[in-house]
Design a protein that fits this description.
heterodimer, A: 71 residues, 2 helices, 2 strands, 58% helix, B: alpha/beta, 5-stranded mixed beta barrel
Chain lengths: 71, 411
Amino acid sequence: MTDTQPTSYEAAFNALQEIISKLEDGELSLEESLKLYEEGKKLSDQCAKLLEQAQLRVSTLGTNEEGDVPV
Amino acid sequence: MDSFDFFRPPILSVTALSNYLRELLETDDVLRDVWVKGEISNFTQPRSGHLYFTLKDAEAQIRAVMWKSSALRLSFSPRDGQSVEVHGSMSFYPGGGQAQLYIDSMQPVGEGMLFQEFLRLKNKLETEGLFNQEHKRPLPRLPKHIGIITSGSGAALQDMLNTLSRRLPLVRVTLAPSLVQGVEAPANLLRSLNSLSQIEDLDLILIARGGGSIEDLWAFNDENLARAIYKSRVPVISGVGHETDFTIADFVADLRAPTPTAAAELATPITINDLATALKNADTVLNGTITESIATRSYQLELKNHDLRRLSPIQRVNNAIQTLDVLHERLDRTIQIFLQQLGFHLQHLDNRLETLSPLSVLRRGFAIVNDTQSGQLVSQAGQTYENQSVQVRFVDGNVPAILHPSNQEKL
């Protein structure tokens, strides 16, 4: 799905909120609202995935070493 | 010797000399930033609020002034005979013809130089407005990239990483390891702060250190560090020592946390659980909107369908068919009755016909006699002759016969 693009959680969630606002406003054609809904579900799934897979990424200045610090 | 007169320096006025002396004192590196210990004597505080006294020890004395603005911040009431440690600068007071120490901070002896220096710097920066609430930058509610300045080996770092990992593992952390105590620590902290400032997407900095003595935490009372924190592009949360420890860095930071762990907590006001809840709600709303949208349309469609059915020409056709059916039925019934009546009538005529038929006479046992040759009906004995050939007709067939009237019996 969309997990190939490194979208930030905030960006995805904000997009989801926007879609919801549009849907709540109504005044959309059925086709439009279904399209938006589909898009919203995708974003919602993406957000859930990001939350599920989230892991603190720690890098240290000077060493240029990136990775998970044992926590 | 007279020739020397030409090169004699110009004769100074007393004012010029005084001014020169004052300039000399005020530009001297030692005298403009000096700590002095002594005993107060000749203490006076006129209505102006300024303090005038003499600082002395066994061998010497010097005039001292503390302006009202500084005097207001004193944490004690000075009196004659008290031993004090003071900080200030030397200058020359032309009007009184004497060198004076202009004091900006003063503590009773025993409160410690470090603490006094801390108070002095605190007052100074506070006066400059570095701690002003208006300057505090807003913290990001959902930081994406946090810089941490602390010891790379301390427990404070692990505490902070644990807390961040637990509360908001979405966040990225860049660690700028730094010495956090000793003479090199302030410069080290400053360098780390500057390095972090260059990371473009960094939206929050935590500067932290675990607990320790006032000497251990001293690096966080550095004036340059304080100014760098003040000027930092990125908002800064400090978490130095324990709840009871306050450093200059704490005052100048945008938010002071009591401990490193608390700094990591305050850095993440929104946790991953909050995000998950919000997402779930959003999902519910999303599903709700589409379900409602479809339900609304479905209802509207049902209404229209109803209208359509009501207005359909089919209905009229059906009505017509029904009417036709009724007529048809009536027609059927009428014709049946008519035919029945015809039937009855016919039967009646038939019966009558039957009674009139000669055959019915024959059925009763009579027979008809016809002359064979002429076919004439022979109805009387008188018409017969000997050996006349006749046909006798019974109900079920003709029988030829020969008549013998000579044998007749007269009736």
